[in-house]
């Protein structure tokens, strides 16, 4: 067994939320390239992601769920559906997220509640359900959350998003503290500004886009494939001794 074998996910099954496009699609494809079969969850069609995963010779199962409605029971049902459809569950990637922009003085109750429900509450319920499954199976497991550079910074006119991503970072640490002794690794990836729908408004604003690029040491926005290596590391035996880490994949944003 060499070090490259530690990154091999052959025979593993990963559940990826927000898998229809963007970061979720990129991570699902990275996991498939490493050998994992994938259950892709999204409210939107995951057909494109399914094609990419199947092109790697891996199995794929689509789960169409609105995470705004997620509670503990629905999360348990999702985990059960994944395990029964693909035979097991080894990896959970809590990636689904939304963003709403408005000044805090004008921020609506709906924009606060919806973002917290999808970005934070759904991630907790799915993590809880997955961890219960991992413990019942007695084989441990991996949970990878999508945090953000706004887990560290307040941002501007995105109060619910910033709060949810700070929450994800500390939830990651809290769950790692409890579940590391049970053989479950809980970690997070903190992207900066990537070419996804969530950042389209910023990137289409020439002045804002120029300011962001000027601060990014890498000199470019991230692409979904830039997360492949990080998610495979945190999902594989190569990351077995990594617990409660928030790994920035940010083009150097936080270093600036």
Characterise the protein shown here:
- The chain contains 8 helices and 7 strands, in the order βαβαβαβαβαβαααβ.
- By secondary structure, it is an alpha/beta fold.
- The chain has a 7-stranded parallel sheet with strand order 3-2-1-4-5-6-7, with helices on both faces.
- Strand 4 (91-94), helix 4 and strand 5 (141-146) form a beta-alpha-beta unit.
- Helix 3 crosses helix 4.
- The protein is globular and about 50 Å long.
- It starts with 12 loop residues before the first strand and ends in a 7-residue tail after the last strand.
- The mean pLDDT is 96.
Layout of strands and helices, then pairs:
Layout: E1 13-17, H1 22-33, E2 37-42, H2 47-55, E3 60-64, H3 72-86, E4 91-94, H4 109-137, E5 141-146, H5 159-179, E6 184-191, H6 200-203, H7 206-215, H8 228-235, E7 246-249
Parallel strand pairs: 1-2, 1-4, 2-3, 4-5, 5-6, 6-7
